[in-house]
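Example S7 (structure tokens).
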């Protein structure tokens, strides 16, 4: 009889410990998904976007990475959080992918991560950046690491349709040309 009572007591203690532990672990989660303009620009024959190469990080307010996770192919992510306080959730994708927003401040308390609301990131498109440089003896050679300004740069589809355009800065920089197309297409940049 004593052994049976000890076993029951032991099981009750284990159950209480697991119940208390389960309530002390919260997490931040949500989805990475395409923006409505990106969805509209895609063709029905385009492959589905796979977000498994996107990571989401939980950072301290001082930008130290506490934890990170890869997204599921459908964009879902979840990061368990064991501490309460203020953090930042940041999304990281392949080079050139643009996000809105790219990070979200969160507060973790007894109500969960931002009151148990999803923290979603919108994938808005791809970007290209670079610098136009002049030939030897050209105008850009007068400025160290510079390039010609006011050069019109156009991003064209394989069919010659204008996707986006940009004019270079005074240093020849072309900070970003955003386009909302699939990376499987071939593009031409005209200078």
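Recovered sequence:
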């Amino acid at each position: 009889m004593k052994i049976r009572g000890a076993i029951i007591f032991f099981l009750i203690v284990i159950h209480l410990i697991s119940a208390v532990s389960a309530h002390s672990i919260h997490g931040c989660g949500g989805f990475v998904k395409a923006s409505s303009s990106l969805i509209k620009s895609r063709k029905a024959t385009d492959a589905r976007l796979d977000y498994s190469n996107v990571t989401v990080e939980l950072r301290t307010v001082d930008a130290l990475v506490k934890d990170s996770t890869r997204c599921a192919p459908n964009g879902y992510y979840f990061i368990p959080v064991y501490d309460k306080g203020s953090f930042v959730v940041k999304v990281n994708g392949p080079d050139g992918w643009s996000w809105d927003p790219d990070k979200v401040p969160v507060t973790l308390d007894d109500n969960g991560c931002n009151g148990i609301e999803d923290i979603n990131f919108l994938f808005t498109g791809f970007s290209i950046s670079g610098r136009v440089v002049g030939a030897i003896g050209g105008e850009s050679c007068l400025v160290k690491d510079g390039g010609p300004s006011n050069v019109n740069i156009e991003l064209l589809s394989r069919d010659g349709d204008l996707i986006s355009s940009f004019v270079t800065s005074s240093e020849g920089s072309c900070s970003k040309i955003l386009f909302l197309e699939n990376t499987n297409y071939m593009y031409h940049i005209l200078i």
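Notes on this example. Confidence is low (pLDDT under 50) at residues 175-188.
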